[in-house]
Design goal:
The structure holds two protein chains of two kinds. Helices cover about 75% and strands about 5% of the residues of chain A. Chain A is an alpha+beta fold. In chain A, α1 packs across α2, α2 packs antiparallel against α7 and α7 packs across α10. By secondary structure, chain B is α/β, with parallel strands linked by helices. In chain B, about 35% of the residues lie in helices and about 20% in strands. Chain B has a six-stranded mixed beta sheet, with helices on both faces. Chain B has a two-stranded antiparallel ribbon with strand order 2-3. The longest helix of chain B has 16 residues. The chains are: A alpha+beta, B alpha/beta. Chains A and B meet through α1 and α8 of A and α2 and α3 of B.
């Protein structure tokens, strides 16, 4: 146990000394790692923002079902419960006739001519159900179900004339999601190759040193552990630098900038900072350790 | 190399002599397991060093101190760290390292240069650092491949003196060189190589090429 602790301590000391003594090489490696880590964490943050926007757009793709004026509330609630049971809906909001009238007055209360006409006709507004679902196919199923099963209660479903728009919205959001994954994978592969080659170059310069280490009786494990530790040190320094960079960039975001009506970009950024820090360290250390392990393994095998 | 066979006894001082390309370095690389012979066997303390595990191989290397013409020092480490490193890899305690390294530096007269990096040293100082590193484990054998090749006569005499002192204290020394002066002044066993073959092996040899 004591021997293992001594080995780890020595590997760390060697790694740290190599890091600051080979400052030029360390700077290049950290620079590349910072680019890769910042790119990855930016992708994560942008993906989060995109998801909020997509959800907001999808929320707007809703369907409203108007009921005949004579249909009692209890009947509408029965229909609402049937929909809830049979279909995957994200949300359903009931608006009574009175609420519909109040909403109308709030909107057009400042137009006397409109108000006068409303007084003459009483309350012409139907009760309605506003439905939110995950995709356009569910909307179609709900619309067909209402038409077939509750045709006598339903006065109008605003799905059929908006069907193409709703399908279009879901199509676009789906494409953004899958496009994001593809871009993420491509950038990820480029990142790993970039870091691997940089660290490989750095260790190539130390090839002669590895040979000397073996000559004085160092085991492959001891040599590899000191270089892996060096990779981890590079990863940590790069992760911290990337965090500072992101932190400074984050404060350039105007505090008043809203992504959607409910979400403020600055607030979102602050909330995501701890997660971003964790991701940066995980990516930094993983890339550093894996790359140096592969690169030294190659030379030790010679 | 072809048909090379000889035995070195414990405590012997043997010089391997030959022109450049005669096979001296190849022979040393085979001793150090850096190269594998296509045919034949090499024994160290009765063990075939090419048929032992990697771990045993590391242990053999720790019993053999090596000195090279190009010093093979770790350029990013100070004189002290170069010597301490050879002990660190064996798992020696920090206390032991702190005690042994200054002793080794004192033996080769480099105490004042302990914190210098290799690029700050002269050729002679670099070679003395390499010697201190080689003897830090109190090795059974010292392999010295052209240790005086890049040194002036004064430093060459110095290095040779250290090797002879080590041999007097019981360490086996195998010296590869093509320096006529050095060989003739030693009066020790000389194995002469030519085109990868042994052409002479005499107890008190002289430079014959």
């Amino acid at each position: 146990m004591k021997k293992t602790i001594t080995s780890i301590k020595r590997a760390f000391r060697l790694a740290w000394k190599n890091f600051h003594r080979e400052s030029g090489l360390s700077f290049v490696s950290v620079f590349v790692l910072v680019i890769v880590i910042t790119l990855s964490v930016s992708l994560f943050l942008v993906r989060g923002v995109a998801e909020i926007i997509i959800k907001d757009i999808e929320q707007k793709a809703d369907v409203t079902v108007d009921f005949h004026l004579a249909v009692p509330e209890e009947r509408i609630f029965e229909i609402r419960d049937e929909i809830k049971e049979q279909f995957e809906v994200k949300g359903m909001e009931y608006t009574s006739r009175e609420e519909a009238k109040t909403n109308f007055i709030q909107r057009f209360g400042d137009r006397p001519a409109v108000m006068e006409s409303l007084e003459e006709v009483g309350n012409p507004f139907p009760a309605s159900l506003n439905i939110n679902a995950d995709d356009s196919y569910t909307y179609r199923q709900i619309a067909d179900f209402l038409e077939e099963e509750h045709n006598e209660s339903v006065y109008n479903i605003d799905f059929y004339h908006r069907e193409e728009v709703i399908a279009g919205i879901f199509n676009v959001t789906e494409n953004i999601r899958s496009g994001g994954i593809v871009v993420g994978i491509i950038l990820g592969v480029i990142a790993v190759l970039l870091v691997y080659n940089t660290i490989k170059l750095a260790i190539y310069g130390l090839r002669e040193e590895i040979r000397v280490m073996r000559l004085v009786g160092s085991s492959n494990r001891f040599i590899q552990s000191s270089f892996i530790m060096q990779g981890a040190v590079l990863g940590c320094v790069a992760a911290f630098s990337s965090f500072v960079l992101l932190f400074l960039l984050g404060f350039l975001i105007p505090q008043s900038y809203n992504i959607t009506l409910e979400v403020n970009l600055h607030q979102y950024f602050l909330e995501m900072l701890p997660m971003a820090l964790l991701i940066q360290f995980v990516i930094g250390i993983t890339l550093g350790v894996v790359s140096s392990s592969i690169a030294t393994g190659k030379y030790l095998g010679e | 190399m072809d048909d090379v066979s000889f035995k070195v006894e414990k405590g012997e001082f043997v010089s391997i002599v030959g022109m450049s390309g005669a096979g001296k370095t190849t022979l040393f690389n085979i001793f150090l397991r850096e190269e594998k012979p296509t045919k034949g066997e090499v024994f160290f303390n009765e063990k075939n060093i090419h048929k032992i595990s990697q771990r045993e191989g590391c242990e053999v290397r720790r019993k053999v101190g090596t000195i090279f013409q190009d010093y093979k020092l770790l350029s990013s480490k100070t004189v002290y760290e170069n010597i301490a490193y050879a002990m660190e890899v064996t798992g020696a305690s920090d206390e032991n390292i702190e005690k042994r390294v200054p002793e080794a530096l004192d033996t080769v007269g480099l105490l004042e240069q302990a914190l210098h990096f290799p690029y700050q040293l002269s050729g002679g100082e670099k070679q003395r650092t390499a010697i201190a590193r080689a003897l830090i484990h109190e090795p059974e054998v010292i392999l010295a491949d052209e240790p005086t090749g890049d040194l002036d006569p004064y430093n060459s005499r110095d290095v040779l003196g250290i090797l002879l002192d080590l041999n007097k204290s019981g360490t086996t020394v195998i010296l590869a060189t093509h320096d006529k002066e050095v060989i003739n002044s030693l009066g020790k066993r000389v194995i002469t190589l030519k085109d990868g073959k042994i052409v002479s092996d005499s107890k008190q040899g002289r430079f014959i090429l």
